[in-house]
Amino acid sequence: MKLKLLQSDITAIKVDAIVNAANTSLLGGGGVDGAIHRKGGYEILEACRKIRATQGKCNPGEAVITTAGNLPAKYVIHTVGPVWNQGGKDKEELLANCYMNSLRLAQENAVKTIAFPNISTGIYKFPKELAAKIAIETVNDFKSDEIEEVIFVCFDKENYNLYDKLLRTWKI
Ligand code: ADP
Prior knowledge:
GO molecular function: O-acetyl-ADP-ribose deacetylase activity
EC number: 3.1.1.106
Keywords: Hydrolase
Structural class: alpha/beta
Strand order of the largest sheet: 1-6-5-2-4-3
Helix content: 40-55%
Strand content: 15-25%
Order of helices and strands: EEHHEEHEHEH
CATH class: Alpha Beta
Domain Macro: 1-171
Largest sheet: 6 strands, mixed
Number of strands: 6
Protein name: O-acetyl-ADP-ribose deacetylase
Radius of gyration: 15 Å
Bound molecules: adenosine-5'-diphosphate
């Protein structure tokens, strides 16, 4: 599995699957979630509604997969990050679960290339450096023969610089 870093808008990336930092409703929201639904169109929302109707809400740490509608990707994997609030080990575990469950779902759907945003570091206020450490560590520990490339897509320069530093110092 090759790890890559980009500063970009994730809705523009042509990979098998992009990951969405969704909320428990799965019905869209602000930040990256809003951008994905806006550009991906109605098909994504319809698919999310169907999932809601059959399995209910999506809990923090869990992931579901839908079409990517009008986006260049094939699939969107929606995962719900934890809200930081007071923080704690349970929040760290839930964030790691987001990356792990998204990769599992990717693998089950023969996804070879996948792009992640910086889950929970926007509206959900997870500290960026801790979130970057958890993201890189979890992805790096995930062993897969099927997934070929994982791209960390940072929207802001601060996250990009944090990832860049960690990937260099850990020599990943
Ligand atoms: P959360 O509620 O999980 O914090 P947000 O969407 O508010 O989700 O933020 C998660 C991260 O996604 C933030 O680092 C934010 O800068 C980033 N982000 C926002 N829009 C985009 C986009 N179009 N592409 C990639 N990342 C984005």
